[in-house]
Amino acid sequence: MTRWILGSVAATALLTGAAIAKTDVTIGLQLEPPHLDPTSAAAGAIDQVLYANVFEGLMRFASDGSVVNGLAKDWDISEDGKTYTFTLHEGVKFHDGTDLDATDVVFSLDRARAEDSVNAQKALFANIDTVEAVDPTTVKVTLAAPQGSFLFNMAWGDAVIVAPESIDDIKSMPIGTGAFKFDDWKQGDSITLVRNPDYWGDAATLEKATFKFISEPTAAFGAMMAEDVDAFYSYPAPENLAQFEADPRFTVLAGNTEGETILAMNNKQPPFDNKLVRQAVSHAISRQAVIDGAMFGYGTPIGSHFAPHNPAYVDLTGNSDYDPEKAKALLAEAGLPDGFKTTLKLPPPSYARRGGEIIAAQLRDVGIETEISNLEWAQWLEQAFRGKDFGLTIVSHTEPMDIGIYARPDYYFQYDNAELQKLMADFDVEADGETRNQMLQTAQTIISEDYVNAYLFQLALTSVVNAKLQGIWADAPTQAIDLTGVSWSE
Prior knowledge:
Layout: H1 2-17, E1 24-29, H2 44-50, E2 59-61, E3 67-69, E4 72-77, E5 83-88, H3 102-113, E6 128-135, E7 138-143, H4 150-153, E8 180-186, E9 190-195, E10 208-213, H5 217-225, E11 231-232, H6 241-245, E12 250-265, H7 275-283, H8 287-295, E13 300-301, H9 324-333, E14 340-346, H10 350-364, E15 368-374, H11 377-386, E16 392-397, H12 418-429, H13 433-449, E17 454-466, E18 469-470, E19 487-488
Parallel strand pairs: 1-10, 1-11, 14-15, 14-16
Antiparallel strand pairs: 2-3, 4-5, 5-7, 6-7, 8-9, 9-10, 11-17, 12-16, 12-17, 13-17, 18-19
């Protein structure tokens, strides 16, 4: 009798359980964050895990790239365009239970723009003159000059709001205001987030999210096929996508990113300080061969550092069409008829490793020999990005509309052009939309014709997702895997 009752209970549980949707998710990622503070590093992997999930800013990016309300419920802009008065949502708490108020916003923005700031996008805050807490839910930000992109800047992951009491441990114990709380980090393996039961906004459907780090493409394929992960964001082996598309268990999402994939050249290291050499490198590369060989056809050719889906985009690929003979002639004109040797430092993503081999062969054909170094992400950040110790490197810049980096002479590829710097300074304070578009087109033309870098392709976002998992963004308007709207269908 007892056995029959237990069996009936188990059967009922099985029947009802079949209709209950899952409440946890495991997301595969190729790159692991070097630490967990989005306000002090350039690594996109930090925002992929934490943006919108754990940390929030005054503004935020929506799935279509538009800028919408974040922690700011409302804002008012003065007639002269220099003062922004933000009204914060009430009842917002950090994950440690402390209240968010205007002083936290003052602290966060002042920290980001401080002289000793290590914020990777410090330039976003350079136009801020003062930040003032008017009352607990009101913040007044006064700019040195009007800035048409200020609200856009406040949506970046580098502009999230943090609490002063959490800063000492933020790299390993992030405390934000988001719909998910940090739970655990098994370094080299995974990061786990759990639902925030005290979230001020609409609660997340998922109770738990695990980001699983799988660097090898073959391991990524095995994990997806075994359903050990529920989605692999920016799947690293495009050659497998056709197989996933044919499998009803999966959906392949093919979308746009903000990722300009470039062969970066160290503009202060000889011989790349010579425009003729940079031009030669650009003409030595077949973009389509790189797209076909490294990305299996996924990717859009670009001729400048700008996304093709942006309304201000100009197609400048003709400035650096594939022409090996022209490349050789340019090298001879630069005094290097026999070519030269340089370094090619490659971070882990497959677009860099596979693309690097193809590009090295193309450069060899015109007399440029490269010493390839395959670096882990932390090594690349230390050597190439911060140390500027490279000749050539390949990386995809996934920050939204980030052409302004070319106006920063200390940026890792070390391009110094006073004309462009003035143009971008004027752009920052220009409010008229059409004028801003024209200025962006001029900026694209300047860097394309100066051959600052070799522009390869706009990175496509191809993610493989369990067919029952809903809400993963197809496009990537910012570096984020926003799980706040993700759920399982029954």
